Amino acid sequence: MPTVTFQHADKHVEADVGERMYDVAERAEGGIPFACKAGACGICATRVLEGMDSLGRVSAREARTLTNLDLNPEIFRLTCLANVGRGDIVWGQPNNAPEANQTLGTYGVRVESYRPLNLTVAEVRFYVQAEDFSFTPGQYMIFHIPDAPHVVRRSYSISTLPSDTRHFEVCVRAVSGGYGSNYIHRLRPGDELQVEGPFGEFVLDEHSERDIVMIATGTGMSPIKSMLVHLLDKRSRRRVRLFFGLRYPADLFYTDLLRGLKAHYPEFEYQIILSQPDPLHWAGPREPWRLACSNCRKRSGRNRKARRKIPGHFVVAFRDLLVTSQSDGDA
Q: Burial code of 178-192, b = ≥16 C-beta within 10 A, e = fewer?
């Protein structure tokens, strides 16, 4: 069996070929920090000392994330995207390893409320048991999910205003077999747990005055909601256009919130689009990205900025449509 060494933490462990390196690192307590576990945030970028060839080729997503962090893909890899190969591997210093006297922001939180938004999505409100908590709209927290003998970590975006420094909320969809999401859905007022953070660079540029196009699907609406209510709270005059995609009418949520935002924020417009609606019960749009492209083209200008929280293949489709129609967004 291949041996995986985490030199930074002085840990060695045998692993099965094909095993996820994330699972190996967690099992070995290898000292590598994780956040999104999807190759987007780059938190787990770690130097490879030996065995680079056994990790396989660098994917386009991994190369993009490492390049954005000014890290050389021939030296660093994203541990969350790697699988154990047939050869031994030695991991060196994680790019985001805390110093010996530094700890990640860890907070004890208590559930204040649990509110179902539809049959599978719920919003959970937490009280932070510390006075030094703060975050920027768009950031996320890492939740410690009890799973003896190790703690499982899952990331969920904050959906609320940053001005309330003693509370935050997350919006989570229960996924069949999802250990973290089902744990969140079992929480009830009074339950206590540990969280880390906040993390993430998917945040508003508050120094800009450019108009904003926001695109979200499903619970990817969570960080977008945080940005929207923050803009309203700050009485921003930036124009905002939101395209919110879901599959079925039963998946709808935050509709009352969006209507309220529209009523109180004149510069805000939104469009809800369903990809698989029942035509007898839905008269709205059914081709979200072509509609979004059309609207962006009609209102296009050099003062528009895109913010998105959608699956990667939708990002590519939307980008290609924008390029085709010569819109000026920078998605």
A: eebbebbbebeeeee
Instruction: Report DSSP letters for 88-152, one per residue.
Output: -EEEEEETTPPPTT----EEEEEEEEEEE-SSSEEEEEEEESSS-----TT-EEEEEEEETTEEE
**Phi, psi (5° rounding) for residue 11?**
-125, 140
Is pLDDT of 179 > 90?
no
Q: What are 63-101's pLDDT values in tens digits?
A: 999 998 899 999 999 999 999 999 999 999 998 765 444
- Which residue, 150, 176, 199, sits at the end of a domain? 199
| Distance from C-alpha of 272 to C-alpha of 78, rounded to nearest angstrom | 35
Structural domain total, the chain? 3
Residue matched to tokens 């004149």: 266
Query: CA-CA distance, 311 to 269, in Å (whole number)?
Result: 22
- Per the domain annotation, does 329 fall within a domain? no
